[in-house]
Amino acid sequence: MSNNILAIKNLTVSFDGFKALNNLNFTLETGELRVIIGPNGAGKTTFLDIITGKVKPTQGQVRFKGRNLRSFSEHQISRMGIGRKFQTPRVYLKLTPRENLELSCNRNKGVFSTFLGNPDPSERRTIAGLLETVGLTVKADIAAGLLSHGEKQRLEIGMLVAQSPDLLLVDEPVAGLTDEETENVGNLLLALAADHSIIVIEHDMEFVRQIARQVTVLHQGSVLCEGTMDEVQNDPKVIEVYLGQPEEQAA
Ligand code: ADP
Ligand code: MG
Question: Its domain of life (predicted)?
Fold first, then answer.
């Protein structure tokens, strides 16, 4: 039947009567990389909050791998295989990238057993692979506090992947990054897309162009249009509400 990892149906979220999401319908195929764009206040963050269970639907439903998420807590949903990366990096600055990744791999074991126990060879290989994937092999053993902002972003994406989620939610990963780091993060997400389902929320249009296959445009809590970057950019509705604004005025 359907190969959708995520299916959102007729979803409405009201905050004191204001509909942050309004009868929204959305599906993501397993293995897909989707970029979501939309002007400020469109409902993008609320959309992620709904998927992670932080906010519950007023109406409608969210299905992940066929299961309705309504009755599950945020923690349970995370254990079911949904990982979220927030906008600001949340790495342990005094630990090295390698140690940060070890901790993420062992989230259930806790800090002490991670450092008291010797990582077994298979775990060591996993972490070496992750360091390679995020491009931090050379900096694996310096304090994470010494990494650049972009390197920290990549490390945090690695920490997310270390938890083996099936669906990765990534909120504005290149805000404040240099052009070179933006491209690095883009390449990292493209590499991860080979074996993960990913939703990226992003404002930076250059970046969206670099990574996007399918783009969903949110506006006033609903899907305004979906398609390739070219289709979306040429859609008069989108030009009107979003892309038509001069860059300087876009908040
Ligand atoms: P975006 O991330 O696209 O900028 P948000 O999802 O943060 O948009 O917000 C969508 C709309 O819902 C905004 O108008 C915002 O003010 C409103 N909103 C978001 N969270 C709440 C809340 N907890 N209470 C009331 N209004 C909210
Ligand atoms: Mg937001």
Answer: Bacteria
